[in-house]
């Protein structure tokens, strides 16, 4: 077609081509101020000679190389000289920063081959067991950003559900660990905790870390930001302090205070995990095997030697039945033991949110009330945090089995936990903006009298997100009633907070049909799933 | 963070918000000249009030609505006012044309919910059998572009390999058919042929269509362009004639000439199939069930009542063993019979390319030599085409079983097939550009003497693609020796043609290591897989 038109321009003698080709491949690098998140995108003008000669297809993957660096990117074709000219290659923010070259620099482009390890993924789709070499090849290709979102989705689905036996989970964990950096704290006991999630509120880390650090046990806690939940520990901690610290600062701080509460995303630990999560979450797929590999590789990369895992169980929790929790526990233990991690699992009550607030500012309020020994502090958050902290304190060989809880309580009640939290906040850098609770409020009331017999975790998390959490930190839901509480008709069950009118409206619309609460006879409350 | 800073600007009273919200949501539509292929992309400025208030994440899906139309798009965040300003919403070419609105028009945006049918996909990942309603929901969501590439990949992997039993293949085919348009030719016999692919050259459709149409049987052939192969029938036909016709023109033409050779992509038949293929091919996954659903839904949508399927078998063909070909045949028959399609399968020789040329111009040369009864015409292409055409002619109730081949040969030898081809080319519109064979040539020679015992289809297809085919129509590979031919040392096996130096170089580099031919004793040639 159009290509054929320039046929006559092709040099007659093949001998001279070698040079021409290399000239033809060279383009000037341009940074395109488009944020394509975790996907590299390259922009080529439709009239660009390379595009025309190579027969690239839109959305094909190309290799861009410069100064020995090479990255892969998905190709978008541009028809506007203001975005890129035919002599330029544009790269999205992510791709540009990854290539580490200046604008205007000469770059070369070529069609990218599909990653070689996709062959192993296809074998996995066919039902084969993969080897350690296969997993290493796959995770290395993912880490090098050679996988497109589609290819990652194919890998996740093929290894999802019952796709991985427990030895493969171990191999996948090892290979994820092998393809990232790993911190060595040079101490015999580096404690960590992790909750598999699904319960709104539940901000126990912000209590466990100061208590455990005040005891003297090293607990360098890195947390995620929320992806599908209304707040991650990093989002909540950010109300009080900076959470994006440089590795050097972090190291000094942890040595001094024995603990921190920072965002894990700035480090390059287990990069493959971050990339897989960016596909897994929007797809809403997750399997036990992938969860175990994801959590354990991340914790081991962060240098943990001892880990306490919190698995909440409840009808609207991520894990709904005790038998699933037990199966998950066995899998964690199997993999953890084989990787030299001292691991304990606590199965906890996941029938309702923990604490009263859902959303960063509200959760900070709950946490501070517990730290300040305020009589109005939510008792469930306080109790759960003390139990978790107690178990971690017992990782200390000098603590007698069964004494952890009492030590934790003493640290909290004496004010040492609050003091430690203040020191950590100061060390990380006090949040300078005054972040306040959203002023637009709406109370959701009971349509009949009764006792609260059921609270839907997913539903309440959704309201808080619609209200703007976690990006709008003052947004969220404040629970006024919890399981077992008696409610009069017309009495408020919870209060929605929003900062912005549009969010406010979304959240209020959402609760028009149902409240997420069930009211009934007191004795209809499902029994606790878990006995502490 | 930054959101919280504008907290004080939020109106104090929720009553007035309703209005403000709707103002806040309105943006001006802008067309962004970026081709994102089959994926809708929306561009929002980072400072856009909607982006800030909604807490969208980059790569999240948003809904854009305008005048009752609504589309979904992946969000890219822009930091450059020259691309979009904070008051605008930019849409990539595809998304813009889908929304059917003018630039500057008011549009509204909101966060998109994941497609409801992803729930069924997750059940499929879990190993469940899905119902017709599930498949309808999935295909409808895909047709409405509610699925991201990732979500389509998840669906394909979950239903790939042994993921579909034959009744599910039937349900998937039916639902793909139900979610697109369907042509009704109002004739009792509408013939079609299809080859499952994998064999370079093999341009039989360009011979079968004129022969069958000259007999008087209606054969409105729509073909694809090459995706991973060096030429599709549409790419090759385009050397002679226009292939992108409007539906009205097409209809008139087919009624008049009884046949056509056009590109299927301009029609809206089985749109889901096109979208799934755009994910399946780059992933390199494909399963029998998906192939059958894809082919049969497309053919039925195009109005076929009778279909001849060509399944080539050979060591480097898509189907490598006779037992797999038989299994595939049964599946085609099972689904075809239940959808009222008269279907026959021909298992053919796939041990080597069919014809001599690989690449659009070279394949046209082969086809024209056969049509012109040129003594130098490739006999394998001629024979195979006559056999296929013969079988289709026998769909005609007035033709006695076993007479089709003789009728086809008579049509070819009498020149009526050539005449019909010329009429079809005229009716579709003669290609005005003179498209010539690539002038950069390179001959690949035998390193030893012997008989050709093996030709690697994949390898030769790859060379032709590297040489520039199908976009560079004059590029390709011209086979000088085929299976069984005797070769002297240093004698040329095939000739590479390229139009552009860079392509030429890629292709020549590629053949430095191996030729794709094996030479040996004459009696070592693998026996034909198939007996005609």
From TrEMBL, chains A, B:
It catalyses: thymidine + phosphate = 2-deoxy-alpha-D-ribose 1-phosphate + thymine. GO terms for biological process: pyrimidine nucleobase metabolic process; pyrimidine nucleoside metabolic process. It is an enzyme of class 2 (transferase). Transmembrane segments: none annotated. Its EC number is 2.4.2.4. PROSITE patterns: THYMID_PHOSPHORYLASE. Belongs to the thymidine/pyrimidine-nucleoside phosphorylase family. Type 2 subfamily. This is Putative thymidine phosphorylase.
């Amino acid at each position: 077609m159009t290509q054929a038109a320039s046929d006559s321009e092709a040099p007659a003698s093949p001998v001279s081509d070698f040079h021409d080709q290399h000239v033809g491949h060279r383009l000037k690098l341009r940074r395109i101020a488009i944020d394509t998140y975790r996907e590299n995108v390259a922009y080529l003008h439709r009239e660009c000679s390379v595009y025309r000669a190579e027969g690239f297809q839109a959305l094909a993957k190309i290799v861009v190389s410069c100064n020995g660096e090479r990255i892969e990117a998905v190709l978008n074709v541009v028809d506007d000289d203001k975005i890129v000219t035919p002599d330029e290659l544009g790269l999205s923010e992510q791709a540009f920063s990854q290539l580490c070259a200046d604008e205007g620099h000469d770059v070369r482009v070529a069609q990218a081959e599909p990653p070689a390890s996709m062959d192993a993924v296809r074998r996995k789709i066919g039902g084969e067991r993969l080897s350690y070499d296969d997993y290493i090849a796959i995770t290395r290709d993912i880490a090098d950003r050679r996988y497109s979102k589609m290819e990652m989705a194919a890998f996740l689905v093929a290894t999802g559900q019952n796709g991985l036996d427990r030895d493969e989970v171990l191999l996948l964990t090892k290979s994820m660990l092998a393809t990232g950096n790993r911190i060595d704290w040079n101490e015999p006991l580096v404690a960590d905790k992790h909750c598999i999630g699904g319960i709104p509120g539940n901000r126990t880390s912000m209590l466990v870390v100061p208590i455990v650090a005040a005891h003297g046990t090293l607990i360098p806690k890195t947390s995620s930001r929320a992806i599908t939940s209304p707040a991650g520990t990093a989002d909540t901690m950010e109300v009080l302090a900076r959470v994006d610290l440089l590795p050097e600062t972090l190291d000094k701080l942890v040595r001094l205070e024995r603990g921190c509460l920072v965002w894990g995303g700035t480090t390059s630990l287990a990069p493959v995990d971050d990339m897989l999560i960016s596909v897994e979450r929007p797809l809403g797929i997750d399997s036990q095997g992938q969860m175990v590999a994801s959590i354990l590789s991340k914790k081991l990369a962060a240098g943990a030697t001892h880990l306490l895992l919190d698995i909440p169980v409840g009808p609207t929790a991520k894990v709904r039945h005790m038998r699933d929790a037990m199966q998950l526990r066995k899998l964690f233990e199997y993999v953890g033991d084989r990787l030299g991690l001292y691991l304990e699992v606590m199965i906890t009550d996941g029938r309702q949110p923990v604490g009263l607030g859902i959303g960063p500012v509200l959760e900070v309020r709950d946490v501070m009330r517990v730290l300040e020994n305020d009589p109005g502090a939510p008792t469930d958050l306080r109790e759960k945090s003390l139990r978790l902290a107690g178990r971690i304190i017992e990782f200390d060989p000098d603590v007698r089995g069964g004494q952890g809880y009492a030590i934790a309580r003493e640290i909290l009640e004496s004010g040492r936990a609050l003091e430690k939290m203040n020191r950590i906040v100061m060390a990380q850098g006090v949040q300078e903006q005054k972040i306040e609770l959203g002023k637009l409020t709406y109370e959701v009331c009971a349509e009949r009298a009764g006792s609260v017999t059921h609270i839907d975790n997913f539903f309440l998390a959704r309201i808080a997100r619609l209200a703007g959490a976690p990006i709008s930190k003052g947004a969220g839901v404040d629970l006024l009633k919890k399981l077992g509480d008696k409610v009069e008709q017309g009495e408020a069950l919870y209060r929605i907070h929003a900062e912005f009118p549009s969010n406010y409206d979304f959240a209020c619309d959402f609760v028009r049909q149902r409240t997420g609460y069930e009211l009934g006879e007191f004795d209809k409350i499902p029994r606790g799933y878990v006995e502490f």
